[in-house]
Structure formats: C-alpha cells, structure tokens
Amino acid sequence: MSSTDEDYYRFDVAGTLNFSAKLSGLTNDVNMQLLDASGNQIQLSARAGTNYELINKTLAAGTYYLRLYSVGATSSPTTLRMAAA
Question: What are phi and psi of 51, to 5 degrees?
C-alpha cells in the first residue's frame, strides 16, 4: 500500500453473520474502516504504529466495504485476512 493509497474491498452479506478482518505485516501505520453501502463508518481500527488492526462485528444482510488507508506520508506492505461465520 502506498502513502497516497486507499484500498477498498467490497463484499456482500446474504444473511446475519459474524465478520472479522485482521490487517498485519505492517511496517508503517495503516488504519482499517468497516463501511456500510452508503459509506458510513460502522467500525474503525486505528491502533498506533505497526500494531495489527482488527475488526470484529456482527453484520446483517447487505453490501459492505473495508477501507485500508495509510496514516501520514508512509507506505506499508499489508496482509489482510477476512473471515465470516
């Protein structure tokens, strides 16, 4: 992820489920937001520095976005893992 990047991941949920996303492998500060279909923030993970980011949320049926964005003028490699149950 570059310093000016914002990466968005769209996903659709057919029914109520427990969603989790973990962002790791960071060398600089990157935050993660869970957004609804209208772009409203549902949850934010904004741990300081190179700590991993984590979101856990029960989601209803609908369309959602996961937004990753760099904090400051830095870039960072990322590993994103998402799961639903």
Answer: -65, 150
72 Cα distance to chain centroid: 17
CATH number of 6-84: 2.60.120.380
DSSP state, residue 51: -
Residue 24's closest CA among 46, 51, 47, 55?
51
Q: Which H or E run contains 49?
A: none
Domain ranges of the chain: 6-84
pTM of the model: 0.90
pLDDT tens, residue order, the chain (85 aa):
555 678 999 999 999 999 999 999 999 999 999 999 999 999 999 999 899 999 999 999 999 999 999 987 677 889 999 999 9
